[in-house]
Amino acid sequence: MSGLHPEYWESDSLKGHKKEIYMSYRCQGCNRVQPNNTKPETVVLEKRLREYVNRVKKVQEDERVIEIEVKSSGWEIVREKKVCPGCFKNLSLSLA
Ligand SMILES: [Zn+2]
To answer: What is the DSSP letter of 84?
Structure first.
């Protein structure tokens, strides 16, 4: 870790000077086009556990190189939608 995350430096007096810009988008919940600077929220509707198999080279004691399989797993997003903060609130209430 090197230093503090910039957000730690944001005081009330600085708010408004440092603002993230969001492009307008169509909410996939209410289907309304959102004005610029509305933060889109991503709702993950479905995800699945995926197993990956990586082939890794390994040097044996007799110095021969063999390939072994190393398994790892991770979540893969299957379906997601981008919604406005209002819909996000409703969705998270209905999911709770
Ligand atoms: Zn919406």
So the answer is: -
Q: Provide the strand spans (E) within 1-96.
A: 41-59, 65-83
CA distance 33 to 25: 6
Say how many domains are in the chain: 1
Whether 3 maps to a domain, the answer reads no
Report CA(88)–ligand 1 centroid distance (Å): 7
How far, in Å, is the centroid of ligand 1 from the Cα of 80?
14
Per-residue model confidence as pLDDT tens digits over 67-78: 999 999 999 999
Torsion of CA 86, 87, 88, 90, to 10 degrees: 90
pTM: 0.53
Q: What angle do CA 8, 11, 12 make, to 5 degrees?
A: 145
Q: How far is the CA of 93 from the centre of ligand 1 (A)?
A: 14
Residue 64 lies in a domain: yes
